[in-house]
Specification:
By secondary structure, this protein is mainly alpha-helical. The protein is built from twelve helices and two strands. A two-stranded antiparallel ribbon has the order 1-2.
């Protein structure tokens, strides 16, 4: 059910981040995270657990679509690849953390069986989700601000993200956005998805390869596999 919610969240995240900004959209994902994990810790009915998993999936989907976009837009060119990889490393580190917590920390013995105290683990999820509100203190994406026509705010955000003189980059950002805007008006309606078919085939092919590799099955049954 988490994957079902993630599909919805991925599309919703793109729209929300374009509307209210990258950092606010990321901070907003804390709300469904907290609500869902809190519900899982308090209620045990199948319907409530299913709904909570869908809600977590929506939050995960939103974060998965917004985070790479935010990182790409705030990073200098020479660090963009490394920071993008760090995002995926953080995801896998989180999966490892949850498996360690669920297998060794929040475990009790009951009638000869080792049982994970998943309600306690859900509360850990609540605590970690609150960290997302820190995004409100972060600089907004300069590129998003420039696309909104707020050149002054875009330059200010870029100044917060860079050390030293970034005047040239600021001017290039504003000039590049103006050029893109003019180009989009002049070529509006001339482009379609077929103009990007090579990129689409590569991206979809990579995603299919990842799914057919069986990684989701391994992640979902890690505890059973490692016994």
């Amino acid at each position: 059910m988490l994957n079902v919610g993630a599909v919805v969240g991925a599309f919703a995240g793109a729209w929300v981040s374009d509307f209210i900004g990258r950092k606010k959209a990321l901070a907003m994902t804390a709300v469904p995270h907290i609500a869902a994990w809190l519900a899982m810790s308090l209620f045990g009915a199948p319907l409530s657990l299913t709904a909570s998993r869908v809600l977590v999936g929506i939050a995960v989907g939103m974060g998965s679509s917004i985070t790479p976009c935010y990182i790409g837009e705030i990073s200098p060119l020479e660090l963009r690849g490394s920071l993008g990889a760090a995002n995926q490393l953080s995801v896998t580190t989180g999966i490892l953390f949850v498996n360690v917590m669920g297998s060794y920390v929040t475990v009790v013995e009951h009638q000869g069986q080792s049982l994970c105290q998943w309600r306690q683990l859900a509360l850990v999820g609540v605590a970690l989700a609150t960290v997302l509100f820190v995004m409100l203190a972060m600089p907004e994406s300069p590129k998003w601000l420039a696309q909104r026509g707020d050149s002054a705010a875009a330059k200010a955000a870029l100044a917060r993200l860079r050390t030293g003189d970034c005047t040239n980059e600021q001017e290039a950002l504003v000039a590049g956005n103006e050029a893109n805007t003019a180009s989009s008006f002049s070529s509006q309606g001339d482009l379609s998805l077929f103009d990007y078919k090579k990129s689409l085939v590569i991206c979809i092919g990579i995603m299919l390869y990842v799914q057919f590799s069986g990684i989701n099955a391994i992640l979902m049954y890690t505890n059973t596999i490692c016994k």
